[in-house]
């Protein structure tokens, strides 16, 4: 135990006194993290100057956030999401070289071991919504196609729900698929135009959003995980730039470079060429993978 | 809903983007608090640069802290205590003019409606430990005695437990009392020498303390609430300066001015004079109350 060389507690030296109690034998990374947390926490309290009642309200908010969580619901992750912290941690851990596609949050709806499908397959198994053709190329930062990229995609259906949120209502693996690029690095598949949807907002986090005049919606997007040997795995979304919530994603997942173009194709020749039954949306989007560090 | 004038999320502008979503209609104090929390939180994350695994470990720690809490146990208050935040909030809300006695945390063991006793009473009802005579004066900042001060005191017994922690073992109201000063502002009562004791350490907070090489103990102290008309109510402790944990209170409650003197009195004349049966401890401590703002 170190001597409390900072002296006794005062408003001025509060963080020093607390940090001074961390034993020298503490695992260095933990010591560094707790010191930083302590200093920023004390700085925040000194700026805010909470009353005792406000401090107790904060304690009760955090308590309820923990108590709302279980095996199926993680309210503290939601809290991190709506404060932009999940996105910040993602950004810090996924700094990309110039020209490479940017990452965004994984989200809670990824499913492992989705069946691999031939290019051009339709992953929309419930037949709902506007048909959508999604295609593009997987490239390296030199603009060369990457062969053998595993493309894992998932999205909501036209009601704004993922299959796993509606088991027994949506077909299994609805709007999920795994594809693998050939030598030309291209990909193509059919889905349905995704919909905006709310994060769970019936808990303390939803109540806080409401108090801040914020809505719980995420703008429509498609999720991607792109894996290729010799490249950094990319976890990202592409977004519908015309979604009404595109400038106010409840979890701050939108980045400029992740805006795709969702074009409504009504030209009869194109409809015929693609074998569609009528007008459809088309999204053409290339991804650039960073080389493995 | 304000336009997201800060643009889309980047690592650099992350806090601005999040703060930019707070609606103009938000209650001003809440808006200010959430803005400050957001900015300090993002600054902390940028300094720490947590890995995804570390971030998830923090989420799980907070979740368990909430889930450990119930009507009897408040693990988030313990967390606030061991980070010195409870003391900091106390300090901010109890800035005293020069010469006035300082405050410290209330703690969870105060009991309302304790019977008022005549000066000189013995509040040690279980007969355990070293007898202790506590006396002093309640003064204003001009050094004048304050008549009619209500003195509410409580302390652990010789085993380091408050009566409410050992219902059925300790007598009701053991080592608690309310006294009222006369014209001379003096107080005097008998208790027992208090003992150091641990904060509850069988939860996530105790585990964190252990990881930091910190112990869970609070040095021996007596609690006081002093109330007098025309003066600010003072919630404080006085501490035994010879306690082995005096320089490392787990909740940082010790302030320089709260160190009392615990003298062992063995002189036969004094023992006889005070009507004691043998050697006893004596604590003489004056309190100075600040005028009401």
UniProtKB/TrEMBL annotation, chains A, B:
GO terms for biological process: catechol-containing compound metabolic process. It holds the Pfam family Dioxygenase_N. GO terms for molecular function: catechol 1,2-dioxygenase activity; ferric iron binding. Keywords: Dioxygenase, Iron, Metal-binding, Oxidoreductase. Transmembrane segments: none annotated. Gene3D superfamilies: Aromatic compound dioxygenase (2.60.130.10). This is Catechol 1,2-dioxygenase.
